[in-house]
Amino acid sequence: MNICVASLCKVKQLEKAEVVIVDGIRIGVQPDVVTYNTLITAYCRFVGIDAGYSILYRMKEAGIYPDTITYNSLIAGATRYSMLSRCFDLFEEMLEMSILPDIWSYNTLMHCFFKLRKPDEAYRVFQDILLKDISVHPATFNILINGLCMNGYTENALMLFRSIKRHGFIPQLATYNILIHGLCKSGRGKTAREFLNELVESGHIPNAITYTTVMKCCFRCRQFEEGVKIFAEMRRRGYTYDAFAYCTVASMLLKTGKMNEANEYLGYIITNGFDLDIVSFNTIVNLYCKEGQLDNAYKLLHEAEKKGLESDKYTHTIFIDGLCRTGNFKEAQQHLDYMSMMGFDSNLVALNSFINGLCKAGHLDHALRMFESMDVKDSITYSTMVHSLCNAKRFRAASKLLLSCIRGGMRILKSDKRGVIDGLRGSGYSQEARKVQSKIRLAKILHD
DNA sequence: AATCCTCGAC
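The joint structure predicted for all components is written out below.
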């Protein structure tokens, strides 16, 4: 029965799994702790954390005691939905019931901290693991390296990798993939390549994830031919069994304005009959939005929703960008409101898109109001605003923003700096131009 | 446990 339930749960057939359990009970086979643990994992994953809890009550009612794996499944569920306090509660509950947390309980908790951008706390969990003398699993290092990279501590991740290797740890393929991904993301393509060589030299065979990661790295560094070559090799080796690699190529084509080619790749995705996830849908929706076909974009969104997929912050950002490009600010605002209501972790990119759309349509003051209301801004926010103000010959306002951008330690394009200085000088504010220039120099010295 | 998706300008 357990094997049957497990395989049904794996493919999301929860109702059928329940039928199997009922049938089992009818012929006298009672579900045990393994059955319930399998169910909890699946319900947390496919339905929600509360559905997982309700299975916990069901098992308690049936007189089955939860074990470490029961709690690990629930902790993993809480991590999936970024519910840190739930993770803690479950940990406490475990200890109260004298169920000992194992390395996986700690791994998951660490993962949760990293996910919520609390690397210090995550590292404390790791130290706790060492202190408690629990034997470490290779996944512990993978989670650590990944978490450090994703939180901007690539250098520390590298040091950790080297140090554990010196201590005899043999990196897995996944460890290399994680490190290569982190290095690419922080713009260190060269070091990433060195690790790709090391991966092969140490006897690992690169998998689809390695290829996709390296391909994206090529695109990032504008080595388009090299990237497309990797894609061709993936096809040759049969590594294009899902839509992931196609999405990487299609997005690059979209970003570089090659609409027809992007269309071609997305056509493959559709005709190949891949089981599309929300990311693939977002990629296609983005193409429609960029082409101004908002109707088709919405049609696709509904299709995704019919499949039970939930739109994420990327989906709404793509729509906001597309709507602003067609001048439909009202509907774009509705998406923005929805994003805040849903409490997505950040809508910075969406706001940048909105501001850009307003500027392009000539609504500079509306854009400025939105700019002022933002509590988090990045270099793109400043770039967009400074550039647009210069275009409108509002150089003094542009210089004010440029200075606060520099004060915030953010980089801005050389051409934008030039635009402000030349503009100020050309409209008779040479003293202010000099002031801006010296501030830029000062910032450069401080930065280096 | 890890890969795929969003914004400015050049």
